[in-house]
Design a protein that fits this description.
With 459 residues, the chain is of the alpha/beta class. The protein contains 17 helices and 8 strands. The strands form 2 sheets. The protein has a 5-stranded mixed β-sheet with strand order 3-2-1-6-7, sandwiched between helices. Strands 5-4-8 form a 3-stranded antiparallel β-sheet. Strand 2 and strand 3 form a beta hairpin. The chain is elongated, with a radius of gyration of 34 Å.
């Protein structure tokens, strides 16, 4: 009996202890959980408060009406010359761009929200993008005038450059057609360089927000990271070739090794060109370059230390004509300050799209305005006249078999990869022919002396 009562007492003590322990543990757990929940809840509220996007009633309709009255109404506030200065192009060209974008790009099409309120107009969106490209300002610089926030302006810029590339890139970043080549050859002959189709050089665009891991690769002697643009420009400042993306540590020769500038010739997709200099016939057009470029058959440099009047005259004429590409770079940077100022973007693809869109817009402006400033009249080079020494094969078409296939006249052999690679190697050898370069340069020296030497003697 005594033993049984003792066991009962011990069991009741254990139950009481377990109950007390459970209550204390539950109370402590509830307090800790409440404390953690309150702290976590405060953090979430703070995070939501920080992430909450501020909304401002900007009255975008007022901005659209002001823009219309200032530039696009029948009686605009500002005259055409101020429109040309601020939009970098004439009004009819800008309206053509706006019309194409609003018809073919969904982002620029007018919409209505759930309340029936009209969205930003295509004019507002395109004007915001043009102002950022032209002046290189921050994204919120157009907020007070056009009533667009910084985020919306960046979105307009990205869609604008994408639309320009997709709608106009094929036409205004094209390779020269046979008609284009003939015009360039005629102008080159008029200026004393038969067979010359332009000048080539590189420029650097500073990349301010280059990723830290890439800075060593993109930083040149100036101590700032840059991206290289290789371009070919003609007398009217049209940019025919643009290769953008190599890091700034590369010089012009390294960029040339990566460049596709001669791919059309190597692949047999370039029109056949024939011209004569000093009584000799040549079949490869060439570019004027500075002294860093290699001595290839497709490059003609100046003479660093000219000896004699013929060499001096050639150096003067070559250095004058070669400045076409330098002038094109200067005009491109003057028109679009975003290219002149250090780029603030970190995405290299977006930077590439911006430079391509600026070049396309530049070429559109050149096409629209070059008749007003071109100093050369090609009417003297009418087809069939004996004064023309440069000829282009107008039967060439990009839809025709390549020139390599025409030379062989055997279509089946093009299927043989080894023969095709051999032909490409042969084309590269022709392009890099140093002996042809020396012969062409000597003939050009004589040709320029015969053409302009008498004027120098008279002076």
């Amino acid at each position: 009996m005594a033993s049984s009562s003792h066991n009962t007492f011990d069991g009741s003590m254990d139950d009481a202890f377990d109950q007390y322990f459970d209550q204390a543990f539950d109370q402590y757990f509830d307090q800790a959980f409440d404390k953690f929940s309150n702290a976590y809840g405060d953090q979430e509220k703070e995070k939501k408060r920080r992430k909450q996007r501020a909304y401002f009633e900007r009255n975008r309709e007022e901005g659209d009406l002001r823009l219309w009255n200032d530039y696009f109404s029948d009686t605009p506030t500002y005259p055409p010359n101020l429109f040309r200065r601020r939009f970098r192009m004439n009004k009819h060209l800008f309206m053509h761009i706006v019309q194409r974008l609003s018809n073919e790009v969904q982002f620029f099409q007018p919409k209505k929200d759930a309340l029936g309120r009209v969205s930003l107009s295509p004019l507002q969106k395109c004007t915001a993008a043009i102002r950022i490209l032209a002046y290189g300002n921050a994204a919120d610089a157009v907020d007070e005038y056009l009533r667009l926030g910084a985020t919306t302006t960046r979105s307009c810029l990205e869609h604008f450059v994408d639309g320009i590339i997709s709608l106009f890139g094929e036409e205004y970043l094209r390779r020269p057609t046979p008609a284009d080549l003939q015009r360039l050859l005629d102008i080159g002959e008029y200026r004393g360089f038969p067979g010359m189709v332009g000048s080539i050089d590189c420029m650097h665009w500073e990349w301010k927000n280059c990723p830290t891991a890439w800075k060593g690769q993109y930083t040149r002697g100036s101590g700032k990271p840059t991206i290289v643009l290789e371009a070919v420009a003609s007398y009217d400042l049209w940019i025919w070739h643009a290769f953008f993306g190599p890091p700034g540590t590369l010089n012009d020769i390294n960029v040339l090794d990566r460049s596709p500038v001669f791919d059309d010739i190597i692949n047999g997709q370039a029109p056949q060109v024939t011209y004569s200099v000093n009584g000799r016939e040549y079949h490869l057009a060439y570019y004027l370059t500075d002294g860093i470029y290699p001595k290839w058959a497709t490059f003609i440099q100046s003479i660093p230390l000219p000896q004699g009047p013929k060499a001096v005259l050639f150096a003067q004429r070559q250095e004058v004509v070669r400045k076409d590409v330098e002038r094109a770079f200067g005009v491109l940077q003057a028109r679009f300050a975003i290219v002149r100022n250090p780029t603030l973007l970190w995405d290299k693809e977006k930077i590439s799209n911006i430079i391509r869109a600026c070049i396309i817009l530049h070429n559109m402006i050149v096409e629209d305005e070059r008749d007003g400033y071109t100093q050369y009249d090609t009417s003297i080079f009418v087809e069939g006249e004996t004064s023309r020494s440069s000829e282009v094969d107008f039967s060439f078409s990009i839809n025709m078999p390549t020139n390599l296939g025409n030379m062989l006249a055997i279509q089946s052999e093009l299927r043989d990869q080894r023969i095709h690679e051999r032909l490409k190697t042969s084309a590269r050898t022709r392009i890099r022919d140093r002996q042809m370069h020396q012969q062409l340069k000597a003939d050009l020296v004589e040709h320029i002396w015969r053409k302009f030497g008498r004027d120098e003697d008279n002076n």
